Amino acid sequence: MSVDSVNKLKRTISWNEDTDGSENNLLHLKDTIPLPKIIDDNIADVTEPFQRGDVTYFFHIPRTGGASVRDILGSCAGLTTASDVGARDGHAFDTNLTIVLDELGSRYVNVDTSTVDGIARAKKKGLIDSGLADVIVTQYLYAGSTLFNPYQRGR
Q1: 119: Cβ contacts below 8 Å, ≥ 6 apart
Q2: In whole angstroms, what is the distance from residue 47 CA to residue 102 CA?
Q3: Which has the closest alpha carbon to 108: 147, 140, 71?
Q4: pLDDT, tens digit, 9 for 90 and up, residues 28-50
Q5: For the whole model, what pTM was predicted?
Q6: CB neighbourhood size of 118 (10 A)
Q7: Residues 79-110: tens digit of each pLDDT
């Protein structure tokens, strides 16, 4: 692997306060920490061009309005979502992937991506290969990244 390839795999996530004592805090890029390979391979860098097969991946941080965003994606944007909603009413254990509608007519895939076990079941059922979901919503970044592959990346 070339030095350029190794450098591409690294991301920087460090910060320090401004050294002159001012109230401004500056983001300083100083330490490089490589991402886990599964995330680096399966989650697209937002600066890279969109590729056919990429699927929108919404990393939901609880208590930050993510449930509202999820609802808007389904009800306003008309996107089919894989989240916890499609698993309600016992649909998490359906044998085949299908679309279920909520009370407002929003479309959800019958999987539960709000738990690690649910993500594993969704992967086993072939969620990404099915092409049913326009958006994958989960709070589990690492586990969620296992749904994707280098040809069908989360974005």
Answers
A1: 113, 138, 140, 143, 144, 146, 147
A2: 35
A3: 71
A4: 444 577 889 999 999 998 888 88
A5: 0.76
A6: 21
A7: 999 999 988 988 888 999 999 998 889 999 99
